[in-house]
């Protein structure tokens, strides 16, 4: 009996072990499938983000086209050229002229800064922003003016040293996410003489607290100019701000003095250093490098001439002459040639800075155009080795790309990407991170994630929520090019059955949308297929459509306006010099004709005229273009719950 009992116990133990292994394998598979689904969602977010940036970069061609051909435009409408030229000029008015008429009322209960600033002001600002208080416009402008004075004295690359007892913390993109900055300071300490920081660009845009982040960083910089270092990112660009939210945030928070603040911010951008070099070994830049990156040249470039990546140098003598005339008649102080907007970077100099701000590393060797973003380049491990060896450097630290873990190491450990905005695409989408560097030791990485109520949900629920949002965004991109997609589908539907093969459908989606996505894997959430696996391509659009504000708006016109709404909004915002949100009907028509000509948009002008005439409700000859574009919005007919959508296992 003893042997029988012992045998039973052994068998029971074996069965329990087998069951545990089965459960363990199932759970590992389950986690792996969740991670794969999360990866698909992140791929959708990133592909669409980069496609939007590509569209933004392509606007530079449009502005070059406009300015190089300004004489014809000027004959049609001189005011348009004047506004474009004025946009490309900076107001260098003195502090008194800008702030003399602004008063801080006794009723203001927000933070009151005292200049020269001290650590107390940093603490005061942090506490106020935690309580969602708004810093008065007077103090915002004063911080911007004081910061500009200090920044103008700085070189293009800040050189700093570590020691065995002196660490430096490097932070990546923050993108207006105040909670992440506060969490970094909580975990790592506030800036001080013994606690140095490098913030590597992209402080603003996308998030709702870009103003607060910029103020905290600039106030900290003014208190500790030798301990807190700021690099320019690709979003420290007034043209980028028009698309990605910072301009709108400023004008909403500072309705009375927003325009003055925006002009001052634009100038601050141009004076931000373009890189930091630590111990003469580590190069910190926002984006990356190219095979032609010349650090010697970049040390000498007059960086303040880089107004915007979307305003490349224009080689037109008459344009240059007009620009000089505008500059000479402006309020710029005589003799300050460094602020003269009549001067431009050369094309080569401009490209050098664009590469620094926009490039991304890739595993493939060589240097080739960054087709995803439309600006900068992709650089391989051989290019990294070449540039580092040429300049006697050991490592590049850069930001610019969201990484699931907040950081990434590539090119045999010679390139590190650091990204400090957690939950960037959606809640739970990624961690944030920062790096600590100490003399002669390996970099140390610190990860974190701002926790919200939804972040406490089970992993499968968080992944499902993120998937749902990713699929919605992708469907909106599809509906914006519905006509082009249908034409591509029908071209392959030789029998006119309304169905094509999965391979044909995937090829059509890729060729029209130009998004590098796993279309075959995503097809179950985008279209219906029959028992033979053929795709009912019209089902791609069955649960989503663009709302038409009026019957006169034809499908191609509606799709075009929706697809290019961000680009057109930027153009019209430039023309709207007083930020009233209104633009004359004639200006609207003129800009539309130029835009459709340059982008080869095949829309009958009479259709567009009919629509904008209807939008001029008051018949006063002007149109609110913000309302105009809001009228064309996507409607999801069957908006599924977050838990209903799951990407393929």
TrEMBL record:
Q: Which GO terms describe its molecular function?
A: calcium ion binding; iron ion binding; manganese ion binding; protein serine/threonine phosphatase activity
The organism sits in which domain of life?
A: Eukaryota
Q: What is its EC number?
A: 3.1.3.16
Q: Which cofactor does it need?
A: Mg(2+); Mn(2+)
List, alphabetically, the InterPro entries matched: Calcineurin-like_PHP, EF-hand-dom_pair, EF_Hand_1_Ca_BS, EF_hand_dom, IQ_motif_EF-hand-BS, Metallo-depent_PP-like, PPP_dom, PPP_phosphatase
Q: Which residues cross the membrane?
A: none
What name does this protein carry? Answer: Serine/threonine-protein phosphatase with EF-hands
Q: Which organism is it from?
A: Jaculus jaculus
